[in-house]
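Researcher: Structure prediction, please.
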Amino acid sequence: DRQKAIAACRRLTNAIDRGLDLSEEVESILRQRTGEVVLVQNRSRLDAFALCATGAGSEGGEKTCYLKFGAARPGPGAGERFEGLLAACDAFAQPRGLSLEAGCNFARDAAFRRMRAHGYRPMTQGIAMHRPNVPGFNRESVYVIDDWR
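Model: Predicted structure follows.
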């Protein structure tokens, strides 16, 4: 059920950073058919999800799966849930012959290290500036992939 899945994604991101809601982005990708939403569940609980932009007219294009956003449920075991998300994105992209691209803020060192171990390589660097000057979801304990294009 699409609406239940979107609500679960909203609860997961809100647990990471209050008010963080990707519902409109999820709806947009699905409505425009410019990618897919990868869900990783453990029984009936959402462990992680990713917005995979791919195909004609998407940010990934026809040969790339661009992970526009991804997140693992915070708390104990978040790192393992994040690795499960990376594996699920691989399982989505590989049979389609797509290369994967993703972004991650270096402040989320544990997420970045797991991505590196999984084969991701940095291509560009950027600076995140927030007003007011708070870390938002750029914290060590957070496992998030985000848009750095």
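Model: The two ends are 31 Å apart (CA to CA).
Researcher: Thanks, that helps.
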